[in-house]
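Quick look at the format.
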Amino acid sequence: MENFANSEDSERLQLQLERLQSTLNRAYRNVPFHQHRLSSDNIIENTEDIARLPFMERAHFAEHYPYNLFAVPLRDIVRIHTAPGTGDNPTVSGYTRQDLQVWQQIVSAALKAAGVDHHDILQIHLDAGLANWGRDYKDGAEAIGAGVIPNTAMSAEKQIMILRDYRTSVLITTPSAAFQLADHLFKANLNPTALSLKTLILVGEWIDESSRKELEKELHVSTWLHYGLSEVPGPAIAFECGQHDGLHVNEDHFIAEIIDPKTGNVLPHGETGELVLSTLTTRAFPLIRFRTGDIARLIKTPCVCGRSLSRIAWQDGRSDDILSISGVKVHEQQIRRHLESSLGFLPQYRFFVRKERGIRDYLEVWVAVGGDLLSDEIKALEKMVRDAEAKLEENLSVPVSVHLKEKSSFIFD
């Protein structure tokens, strides 16, 4: 068995190397951004040589908006997706037909690892900021013959009605949305045992073990964790098997590294740091050493399930100042820019990510006002605030609540 595992590892390393070389060549030939950063004589002789290459960061997406990071002609793109960026421009990612076919296989494999099959009815419940994930999960589930209830914007009450009446057996959602549904179930006096739900696939955000066990106990389900990127390429980059001992990285399609976020140096296996990902099969939008900002630990020891894939132990926190709201990445620069654009001036403000049980995660923004405003001025400002709230929601793809607060109610640094 050990010789077989070593042989499988060697074959995978060779496959990774060939695919990495192909990706680098395509990126160098077709993307000026990569031409300026990669040397034409930069020979990659093994996958560890990737550590000599420069990093990609989220800021690069905005700087090369909209199509300047595409490695194929626009005529070969069959899907274009937009996500909130960290600068003035959103992140625009493209997919070829082959990219979508590969992604369908990746998602299908992750679902199968969670025991999903053609007998299941699978319901997808994700916020607008993860709408592309909804499409990917729909395609992956349909490929294995499961019945799919696609992602649709509905109230928690409506989601529960569908859970009950349509006999959903698998639910894909974020941890915060799962807690919201659980609370609505009990408020409606509906016993979870009356549902057909047996599997809960949690995506978009990290969840601690105690909260996870709480969900399993309250909903009478087994939970499975998937890791992905909200910008590009999508969900299920890493997935749990039945052992629930780390998330298997799809190493036929990605190379994962753990770096020291301060120095950028690659850390030894087993140490905790920032997760860096490189795509191996993505044609339209290759990522080369992309800094995810997520904190993780790489596990190389074999898994009891028999898969030889490396695993990541996904951990709480981030290495950057980006907020994660139900899996959607939000940067303070975006909040500031949209506030100023809506109000016509940049006010003193504060913001918080609200994570309250039974309530969808949302961004709360406080705008400071003086205590000497006239009633007409307050009414006009309140209208501007509502407009700002709508603009923030539209551009950030997360729920937002903006409140006027007297300056004396909080202290600014």
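Next, a different chain entirely:
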Amino acid sequence: MRSVNTEVHLTMKVAPGWAKLNDLAARGRELGFAMARTVVAQVLWERQEQELDRVHAGLQDLACPGCGVVHCGPGSVLRRGVRRRRLQTSCGRVVFALRQVSCGACRKTFCPFGPLLGLRPRQRIAEELLEQLGEGVLDLSYRKTCALGRAWLGGSVGPRTLWNAVQDRGRRVRFTARGPLDVFLVDGTRVRAGRRPHGEAAVLGLQIDGRDGPPGRCRVRKRLLGFGVGRSAWPAVLGVGHHAPLVVTDAASGLRELVQAICPTARHQLCEWHLTESLKHFLTLQRVRPVERRALARELAGILRRRSRRGYTAFRAKLRRYRNVASLLRQALPYIMYADRSAERTNSIAEREMRELNRRTDVGVRWSTAGVRNLLGLRLARRHNPDDYARVWERPTPVSWQLVPQPG
């Protein structure tokens, strides 16, 4: 859309005695929304009038949808009144007029400026309102988000309408890589979705590009490459990073074989944090005292930090009386005690994301697999891939405006 230089003059009537600071400030949002709606309606009208003047001046073509005749020049089309439209926006319901014109050849009356103003057929809600409410629903429920929309925005939509918008945008999300893929972190959790008793697996894969900042306060450069929910989530996400030199996962059952089949050329590194947590879990099943469990977990963490194979072997021998623990340490040895240190040795970054996914989905209801996948995919795109998130929404173009105080 071309830039429009339009002056809009507004007059506000204030009731006598209603001019105190606290009163005006309390109704500032309402006054701002009212002025915004008036300005929007007036600018849309002026935009149509300017375009119609260009058609009459011979500077712009206008095709009739009925007969296909292209009009250009004085008297080619006739003004035939207006048609009222109502659109729900973040400043409230905007009521504006669409200019109607009549074709000089077939006498058909139509509104030619809907696409010019960014309107879709039968559109009732502005895209910018859906985007703002969509960002809210990524952290809150649909009903609470709609209530906040009514409280903090001038307009709102129903929960079902918002659900349809979020699901539609979630289906459009495509996660893209940026730069070479050196480290691929994969982790999963269970979300209460689908018909399986324990829910469906939600799996995500993160691209790690390094760290910035001093030790202890560094910022991890990461990007989401794959996300899925359901039985095929693990193979699908691992397939995205099949060419990565290093794949870091936890020690879930069957995962080693799956990584070897899908990523045959990658080094498979088990997460050291998950290994110590699994150790404490199996020791709990063996009824080992909490103090002793924590001491053994710290001992194992120190051995992994020093990369001491001899210490690891001695630690295994000390705990061989616990069959599950001995099996865990034996199976993890080829995937964790590499001679040369891996670039990443834990997927704790992905584990933190798992906790956020559980926090959003554990709301006391059972989700559909597609519904939770679209919602969480949109949420993850906003957190990690802002460019992928922006592509699913119609981004507004910045509009320059200036308030000119009236003299006197």
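The chain has a mean pLDDT of 88.

See the schema section for token definitions.
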